Amino acid sequence: DRRAKNQLQLLIIILPDYTGTYGTIKRICETELGIVSQCCKPNEVMKGQKQYQENVALKINVKAGGSNSVLLDAISRNIPCLTDCSTIIFGADVTHASPGEDCSASIAAVVASMDWPDVTKYKGIVSAQGHREEIIQDLYKLVDGKPSGMIRELLISFYKLTRQKPKRIIFYRDGVSEGQFAHVLLHEMDAIRKACATLEENYLPPVTFVVVQKRHHTRLFPVDNNLTDKSGNIMPGTVIDTKICHPSEFDFYLCSHAGIQGTSRPTHYHVLLDENKFTADLLQLLTNSLCYTYARCTRSVSVVPPAYYAHLAAFRARYYVEGMTMSESGSSSALDMTQSNQAHIAMLPKIKDSV
Length: 355
Fold this sequence. Notes:
Elements: H1 2-6, E1 10-14, H2 18-33, E2 36-40, H3 42-47, H4 50-63, H5 72-75, E3 87-95, E4 106-113, E5 122-129, E6 141-143, E7 146-148, H6 150-162, E8 168-174, H7 181-199, E9 207-213, E10 238-240, E11 250-255, E12 267-274, H8 280-290, H9 305-320
Helix pairs in contact: 2-9, 6-7
């Protein structure tokens, strides 16, 4: 189609007011026009610093469908828990309105890897749900009596792109407190099972369900001061799975990133379900390896990328709701809903396939 070939695919915008127009531009480009956009700060553009240009280039390359980095072990198929059989990795998060907002919808996001064994490209789906609801409602649902939902759609997309059915599922779930573990696991695992069963009879790939927690007050310090990085923090890749962890449950602290300033905060991973029967060492190695594949930078990050991407997608979706404004810091205003109308949840506009 000649029109499709000549259609604008990438829009680079230098914003005069970065906080006031960013959300509107993203919503229009991604839900109405189907154009990949990259916004730049005018003061940074004028400086012309190489590091800023490199960071923008990283974002543009990924948005255009490229990969910025691939693990050498992925190429040689030597990553435990991942490269021995077709594996799909999910990340999920729910973002809630700011404190004091009584009726704003929560936004859920689920992302999934779309290439194997590289695991560098992800697809995301977002949906709105009830105020302060932590369980993701649209993982599996019936629409006009037909099976649908986030998990089913992402599994189908994985098969279309790789021509393989996932034989293993790894699910990283962000934003769950310890008091919600059992409730979230029960409902969301049930949705995952139902979604898989609708694709093929007896299709029940084993699932490893991991909760990712960053909001805690635990800090780690080396016994030997010689075993630190340049900032004085523990070395990246440090794992703690004894002493301060639960005596009977499967959890561990992982500091996957190199600290730049201040004291590094490790991420606490809780394995609520492990049907794949991973050893602690193998799952820790996989999680640490994935932290080097984050597309926006050339360093390892502190949170496993699937959960990181889901968090970003959930916050981005707040721009899509008409009448919602969002500042650069991430705070957002309430949806146009009253206390008596909390049951009504505004549908998010569909993101164009070309984005």
